[in-house]
Specification:
alpha+beta; about 30% helix; about 350 residues; single chain; 17 strands; globular
């Protein structure tokens, strides 16, 4: 990935946006897709829809969710500590000791996630997973009044980590899941510039996926597409102790993962594999026996049904501040998505 492309990815991934607070992420996405789209709109829930060849047939929806996991301020104690609820799924062991940003009207306020030091923990406390209610955020305020001058109930919180390169084409970030998916959709729209299209392509940065696939449900109803591709992260299983029997032999750097199973239309799956072979894009296959937990769940059940597919990008350490990806996988996923759209025509019958 060249420096210019990396800078765009970094800008999108580093912009804070837990579920319900994605407005700034959507602004960045809108800026990215406008030069490569015919129409860009934002619906009342916050989904940003970028349409290319909007009168084409059939309509194809490309979805990457714009939200990340985070926290929300619920209570401020007399001592000035912030107590919080979870936005999305967290491992509370990971949260302990992390630096965070509280996003306020005045800007980001730095804090730390506090817990009693190990020296002060009773034996039974040391041997159990901490409860979120037993943790707090310390912003350095002397008391409640001082904290309230900076923070309000309902302010969102994210880990204080940004996108950084590791060795080779590997990188780490707190929120590859799934602002990376928004980048893939935007990049696919760019790659389709100047290409002849039969279908209408609708690239959507969906909202509130982490709390129930909510944006995908409303966006797909409004667009009413026949075909949909959701892109999200998937578990890479190339780390110590990974049980490949649970997911499959999925590796970083081995290409996008094409899911196959009940949530996937078989014609969409076949066309994705065909595209990868014809374009020389490396790919992996993952079996998904039920719902995939992605936007494709909601998309598949839109109106009278949608022919859906899922492209996952391998990820280590999901839902932590140190998620790891291969940048080449991100680029190849965008290429596969764009190539798929080029091959969709009105003559294809997606009936299983």
């Amino acid at each position: 990935m060249n420096q210019e492309t990396f800078a765009l990815l970094k800008k999108l991934v580093d912009t804070p946006g837990p579920s319900g607070y994605e407005q700034q992420v959507q602004k960045v996405y809108r800026e990215m897709v406008t030069p490569y789209s015919d129409i860009v709109t934002t619906d009342v829930l916050g989904n940003v829809v970028a349409a290319k060849n909007p009168d084409g047939n059939p309509r194809v929806m490309l979805a990457g969710h714009a939200d990340e996991i985070g926290f929300i301020v619920r209570y401020i104690s007399e001592e000035g500590f912030l107590y919080f609820g979870q936005i999305g799924g967290h491992d509370s062991i990971v949260a302990v000791g992390q630096r965070v940003y509280v996003h306020t009207e005045q800007g980001a306020v730095l804090g730390v996630l506090g817990r009693k030091a190990i020296h002060l923990l009773e034996t039974e406390e040391r041997n159990k997973v901490p409860n979120t209610n037993d943790l707090w955020i310390d912003i350095g305020a002397a008391n409640k009044k001082e904290a309230q001058e900076l923070v309000q109930i309902g302010d969102c919180v994210t880990y204080a980590q940004d996108l950084q390169r590791l060795q080779g084409d590997r990188a780490t970030a707190r929120s590859f899941d799934n602002k990376m998916g928004c980048f893939v959709v935007a990049e696919a729209l760019r790659l389709l510039t100047g290409k002849p299209l039969n279908c209408g392509v609708y690239g959507v940065a969906t909202v509130q996926e982490e709390i129930g696939l909510r944006g995908a449900r409303t966006a797909s109803y409004g667009i009413n597409p026949l075909v949909g591709i959701a892109t999200d992260v998937g578990h890479a299983m190339d780390f110590p102790g990974a049980d490949k029997k649970k997911v499959g032999d999925i590796k970083l750097g081995a290409g996008p993962v094409i899911k196959r199973g009940a949530n996937i239309n078989p014609k969409v799956f076949s066309l994705l594999v065909q595209t990868a072979k014809e374009e020389g894009i490396p790919y992996q296959i993952e079996a998904a026996p039920g719902g995939t937990g992605t936007d494709a769940n909601a998309m598949q059940l839109n109106r009278a049904g949608m022919a859906t597919g899922v492209l996952s990008v391998p990820l280590r350490y999901m839902h932590t501040p140190c998620e790891v990806m291969a940048l080449e996988d991100i680029e190849n996923t965008a290429k596969l998505m764009a190539g798929f759209c080029e091959r969709v025509t009105p003559e294809i019958d997606f009936t299983p």
